[in-house]
Amino acid sequence: MNTIVIKIGTSSLTNSETGNLALSTISSLIETIINLRQQGHRVVLVSSGAVGVGCDLLGLTEKPRNISIKQAVAAVGQGRLMRVYDDLFSSLKQTIAQILLTRSDLSRRSSYVNAHNTFQQLLQLGVVPIVNENDTTAVEELKFGDNDTLSALVARLVEADWLFILTDVDKLYSADPRNNPDALPITLVERIEQLQELEVQTGESVSGRGTGGMITKIEAAKIATTAGVRTVITDGKIPTNIEKILNGESIGTQFEPQAQQVNARKHWIANVLVPAGKLYLDQGAVKAISESGKSLLAAGITQVEGEFNSSDAVQLCNEEGEEIARGLVNYSNAELQKILGCRSENIPDILGYAGAETVVHRDNLLITN
């Protein structure tokens, strides 16, 4: 029995010309999910479309850019979208549940664990959770950015075996096949770095209704595969391909799970938390944390940027400003301004109280580059 996360985008859910819901595609998707459930698989659906449906109901021809208008449109569209899902799933006697998430819901470790427990209970009860970002309340700086990223984080959250990203192309290509006849198909990606070697070109959504392009799907695959989730990009208009892929057919582009997988806590730090600041490190500190796996000490910090408190996430950068790692910091920015460049044994005298020996402990640090 597999746990499967399926993400479907607005471009697949709606008609590109009219903006209306593509009911034939949605019906095929639901029948596929029902079949997977009958085969014993557990399924989570991450569905875009609230803003697109809202635009259609309100007669808007373009997706709004103003955040407050977009949130209002999402509120209009989410109810209609869930009604369509509920009607079609109910006709096949499948119970569903709506889950709306923001990044802040997952940024606190306790709420992240609670979300994990809720998903597990729903799946054990045979329910299909339908997930979307809560566009109505999310503030811009705490948004996932797109449902591709959200689906990858959900796949990690539910400990999925597979993530299927259904989109408006059938697979990944070396260039955009819609305007480049020499584009070569890519059926298997063993490691993400392979795409840079092939000079794969990425673009934005061409429908005008979605929020992401191929680049967000590759980033989602990177997040998922580091958590051990096999990821597939395939044609959203043919949901029945999911069953064929599970049966071994080579359809779409598959990303193999990475050999060195990141544990749950470090994955949460690197991919869920929004960094509140930056720490610039000298060459010795960069080498110590990236090559020797050591904790970050105050002596290796040359500059502090941003306002943050103890236990906040920060980016760790080299002297050129390139991020090399992320971690949870043991001091506030004000404290670090006083102790940067200092030896650990001198910290109590400088601050007037005993603090942590490390600025970022290795257990709370993940190399990102």
Write a structural description:
The chain folds into two domains: 3-262, Acetylglutamate kinase-like (Carbamate kinase), CATH 3.40.1160.10; 275-367, Archaeosine Trna-guanine Transglycosylase, Chain: A, domain 4, CATH 2.30.130. A hairpin with a 5-residue loop joins β13 (313-317) and β14 (323-328). An eight-stranded mixed sheet has the order 3-4-2-1-5-9-10-8, sandwiched between helices. The protein has a five-stranded mixed sheet with strand order 12-11-13-14-15, with helices on both faces. Mean pLDDT is 88; it is low at 205-212. α3 (50-58) crosses α4 and α7 packs parallel to α9 (214-225). It is of the alpha/beta class and 369 residues long. The chain has 14 helices and 15 strands.
Topology, please?
Layout: E1 3-8, H1 10-13, H2 23-38, E2 42-47, H3 50-58, H4 67-91, E3 96-101, H5 103-107, H6 109-124, E4 128-133, H7 147-157, E5 162-167, E6 172-173, E7 185-186, E8 188-189, H8 193-197, H9 214-225, E9 230-235, H10 241-246, E10 253-255, H11 264-271, E11 277-281, H12 283-290, E12 301-306, E13 313-317, E14 323-328, H13 333-339, H14 347-351, E15 365-367
Parallel strand pairs: 1-2, 1-5, 2-4, 3-4, 5-9, 8-10, 11-13
Antiparallel strand pairs: 6-7, 9-10, 11-12, 13-14, 14-15
Helix pairs in contact: 3-4, 7-9
